Amino acid sequence: VNVETSLAEVVDAYEGDHFRGNEANPGQHRTIRQPALGGSKALILDSNASGTAPTHLRIYADSDSLWFTVNASWNGSAWARDSTSYFSGGFRMSRSEIEFLHENSFAATFTAWSRTWRLPMSSTTNSAFEMSGSVQEIGRLGMEWTNADTATRTLAGGGSVTFRNRFPATPSSLTFSVLNANGSFSGSPSSYFADRDGFGFYSYQSMPSLSTFWWFGTYTAVA
Amino acid sequence: MAIYEVTSTEVVQRCGRCSAENRIAMGVLKVGVAHEAQTDPRTIPLPACPTCASTEFLIRSPDDEPEYPAPGAFGHLHRLLVDELHADLVKTDKVIPALLDSLGRADQTLARPVAKATRDRWFPTGMKIERPTVEAALEPVPVVVEPILAPEPELGPEPLLEPVVAPIEESK
After folding, report:
1. pLDDT digits (tens, 9 = 90+) for B115-129
2. What CA–CA distance (Å, rounded) separates A131 from A33?
3. Cβ separation of A171 and B59 shorter than 8 Å?
4. Which chain A residues are Cβ-neighbours of B32 within 8 angstroms?
5. Is the pTM of this model over 0.80?
6. Which ipTM did the prediction report?
7. SS3 category, B81
8. Percent of chain A residues past pLDDT 90, beyond the cut
């Protein structure tokens, strides 16, 4: 056995994709390469650099997506928290979509993220995130109109609102709160035919001749 | 913002603007919103909040709505609660006049009652939703972490004690 040759083989093996001791940045990585690791989700990186569960980072790959998670590891059949005192979060990216993930149950393990925001890049309709889970959105709506007649008339005003994102389902609640309205405005606008993309609203008002009515406010939607 | 409980006599609502908890008697609720000759039979207008005058509209799920994508989430439970309230009101003919027939009865096909198996699974102790976990979230437990030491600054050239002055060439 040629000792020098054997040592050279060992050094060459350790040198693979690393800088040599006699080079700049000795011991540091060049390109990181991994062969197929197997499993339902292969763990690419597990970094607890901060020493705390909230930022314990893991990167996984399955047959379709890359998963970046904090405070969540894959145990083969479910996500497991590092600490049940904290939420879990992450995002998943693939060739066709990207999805942000949040889990707020504090359960030790879970199989579905409780809130997700998915951008369907490959879908025909792809301009907004599609959300799932508990969704609450606050936005603006308003209307203003005039009775141009010379007599008191009951006139209708209204409009429509598009949500910022596509809701997971038709909202089950819409709340209207006034920010500013004319003093004679009676009641509140009514919602009309809501769906996952938005809703209509209208109001009938008895208006004196040549008067202008307005209502501007906010909506809170729960879906 | 949402309702949290439905009993045989009242609905418990938490106002989305002022967070006031309002207990609304079942007797004042009616299904439906009239709009000219049309009606929206899926909507239940709630009375204005007595504190801030905000107005909430509950909307039962459409007939062709697919299954909720995240079962057990607050949005899913709230939808079931609203569907059940809507069905209870229709069953007792508490709808706006435009939705009553000549005998003063509501069309029972307007209701979309929650299946008993679904009720038993998600509301085993009654039609009530626990407050969202996001509101009951624990304060993060402070964790003592050894401070990460900043790297030593790289040393620059030694400071010059005296300015370098170019020698003045003597005039010839």
Report:
1. 999 999 999 999 998
2. 35
3. yes
4. none
5. no
6. 0.75
7. helix
8. 75
